[in-house]
Amino acid sequence: MFLVFLTAPGAALAQSPALDSLRELARQPQSDSSRVLLLCSISDQYWARRTDSAEVYARRALALARRTGYQHGEGEALNRLGAALRERNLARALELFQQSLRIAEVRHDVPLQAQNLRSIGIIYVYLRDQQQGLSYYFRALRLGRQLHDQRRVVLELSNIGLAYDLFNQLDSAQYYQQQAYALARQLHTPTNYILYGLGQVARKRGRLAEARGYYRRSIAESKALGHERSTNFAYVGLATLFQQQGRLDSSIYYARLGCQAAQHNGFLRGVLNASTLLTHDFKRRGPADSALKYQSLLLTMKDTLFGQEKVMRLQNINYQEQERARQAAADQAALKTRYRTYALVAGLVGLLALVLLLVRHRRQQQRANAALQTSLAELKSTQFQLVQREKMAFLGELTAGVAHELQNPLSFVKKFAEVSTDLVDEINGAQRLARDGRLEREILDGLKQNILNISQHGQRATAIIKGMLEHARTGSAPREATDLNALVAENLRLAYAGIRHQDPDFQATLSTHLAPGLPAVAVIAPDLGRVLLNLCTNAFYAVRQRQLAQPAPGYQPEVAVTTRLLAEAAEIRVRDNGTGIAEALKTKVFQPFFTTKPVGEGTGLGLSLSHDIISSGHGGTLAMESEEGQGTEFIITLPLRS
C-alpha cells in the first residue's frame, strides 16, 4: 500500500522558474519577517524536489524567526522543518508540528492551525491509526471551509480520499477524490495527486484501462510541475497495475523510474514502495542478483522507517498520557485557586456557611444514596422477574408450537392406524363370508395407502424434532476464516443438484456475481453453509412453483447469488424470480413453524433456524425483500470483525 499525502501549500506549484525567482528575490534586501516567509516558500518548493534542501531553508527560516522574535514566522518554519524531517524521523516531525500548532492556537492563527492539523493527521495515518488520522484531517477541512480557502479545501479533500484508499474503503476514497477533482478543475489548480488517487480506486476495483489513464495523466502533470514525489507515486501505481496483469517487464520499467524519482527527492517511503515491487518482480522473472539488490534496499528502508514508527507509537502513548496529566493538574490548580479566592472574599462567615452547606449536602447525598440503593435493589428484583417471565413466556410459546406441529402428523398417524385396523377387520369378515378377490384388492390397496400416509406423517414429526435439535446446537463450533465466495458457490451448486434430483426435467439459470478480493471472514462454516443451502433451496423451490403454476413461454427460472464488500461487513444476497411472498405474510417468515409450503413439504423451521444462525451465531443480520409474483431476495450481512 502506498502512502501519499499533500502537505506544503506551495508544493504543487514547484517549477524551476518559480524556484529561481524566489532565490533571486532572497538575494535582495528585505525585512526580517518577509525574509522568514520567503525562506519558508523556498522550502515549500524544494519539498517536492529534494527534502534535504527543503530542510536547509526551513532551518534558516526558523533560526531567523527566533532571533528576531517573529512568532508567526517561527510557527511556519517549524511546520516546514517537520515536513522535511518526516521521512527520516516521525517522532521529531510530530514534535515540531505540535510546537507549531501551539503557537498557532495562542495567536489564533487559523490558516497555520489548519496546516498543522493536516500535518499531524499524516503522521497518524502513517502509523495506521485511522480514527486519529481522519479526525485531524476533518478538523483541517472544517477550518479550510471556515476560511473560504478553496485551494486548501482541495488539498484536504484529496488527503482524506488517499487515507480512505490506504484503509481500502474505496467508496469513501472515490467520493472525496471526485469532490477534490471537480473543485480543482473549477480553480484551475494542479490535479496530479488527485489523478493518482482516482487511479488507485479504479485499479483496486478492476477497471485497469481507466486506472492506467489516470496514472499516465498524473505522470504527465507531475513532470510538467517538476514534482518528483507525485511522479514516484504514479510510476509505482502504474508498475503495480502491470504486475497485476503479469506484465513483469513493464512493471520493472516503471518501478525503476519510480525508485529513481523517490531517491532523487529523498522520499524514503517511495523508495520502499518501488523496491518492494522490484524485489517481487525480479524474484519471479530473474535475474537473482537484481532481486537481491532491491531486497537489500527494501530491508534498509524498512529498518529506517518502521523502527522509527515503533518508537513513535510509544512516544504517542506517552504524549497522550502527559497531556491528560497536564490537563488534570491544570483543573486541580484552577479549583484550588477558586476556593482560595472564595475564602479570602467571604472570610470567616463565608467559611462557616461553606461548612454548613457541605454538611447539609453530605446529609442529602447520604439520603439520596440510600434511596438510590433501595431503588436499585427494587429494579434488580423487577428485572429478574421480567427476565424469568420472558423466559417462561418464550418457553410456553415454543412448547405450544412444538405440541401443535407434532399434533397434526400424530393425529393423521392415529387416524390412518384406526382405518387400517377397520380394513383388516373388514377383510377378515369378508373372507369368512365369501372370498371376493376384487374386494380383497381394494381393501389391501387402501391398507397400503394408509401405511404410506402413516410413514409420511411420521417422517414429518421426525423432521420437526430434528429441526428443534438443530436450533439447540447452533453456534457451538469455533469460527474459522472462510472464503465466502467459495462457500456461496458450493451451496448454490448443491441446492441445484438437490432440486434436479427431485425433478430431472427442471432447468434454471444460475447467476453468480462474486466480489473479487473479498477477504476471508471468521464464521462457523457448517452453520453458514446450512443457511446458504436453505436459502438457495427455497429459491429453486419458488421458481419451480412459478413455472408449474404459470407455464408462460417467456418465463425462465433464475436464481442469482451476489457477494459484496461493505465498509465494515461482507454482504451475501440470494435472489430468485419465483412466486414471491404476499405482503401479509412477510412479517411471519422468520417465525418458528411458519411456512408457505403445502403440508408435508416443509417444517417451517428453515428460515427461523437461518435467522438464529446469522443473528445469534454470527452477530449479523438476515433481511428479506419480496414482491408477490415477481420474486424474493434474502440479504445476509456478516461483520468483518467479530
UniProtKB/TrEMBL annotation:
PROSITE patterns: HIS_KIN (PS50109)
Keyword DNA damage: no
Domain Histidine kinase: from-to ranges: 401-642
Annotated GO MF terms: phosphorelay sensor kinase activity
Keywords carried by this UniProt record: Membrane, Phosphoprotein, Transmembrane, Transmembrane helix
Spans through the membrane: 341-359
Keyword match Plastid: no
Pfam family, one: HATPase_c
Domain of life: Bacteria
EC number of this enzyme: 2.7.13.3
SUPFAM superfamilies for this protein: ATPase domain of HSP90 chaperone/DNA topoisomerase II/histidine kinase, Homodimeric domain of signal transducing histidine kinase, TPR-like
Reaction equations catalysed: ATP + protein L-histidine = ADP + protein N-phospho-L-histidine
Protein name: histidine kinase
Organism: Hymenobacter aquaticus
Lineage: Bacteria, Pseudomonadati, Bacteroidota, Cytophagia, Cytophagales
